[in-house]
Amino acid sequence: MIKAFVKFGIVGASGAVINLAIFNLLLFVPFFHQHYLVTNTLAFLVSVSNNFYWNFKWTFRGKAQHKTVTEKYIKFVLISLINFAINTAILGVMVDQFGLNKRIANILAIAITSILNFIGNYAITFRDQKQG
To answer: pLDDT at position 60, please?
Structure first.
């Protein structure tokens, strides 16, 4: 499990870089700067697909073979959406209630939800059938 967590972290870091790059680039556009939660949504959609691909191919390679790729992708996205909702709530509170910089708040929100994301995908998406 530790090896999977490390790999998941590496994949998550690549997704975070993609997420942050898209988030930061879009903030240069006035509409997206004003509507940072829309910006966060777009960045999420790209990064979650990247993360699924690499977790499927590398982190959890050969796991949950009784499930189709589509089933795994749907579960991965659903777990990611739950974490996205938590992420967005944290981001909104940090920016709107505490006046934190949008970029710093986004980094903190990603860090907080990363552990929940691993646990959900380890236990649900890529869980092997029980023996016996």
So the answer is: 95
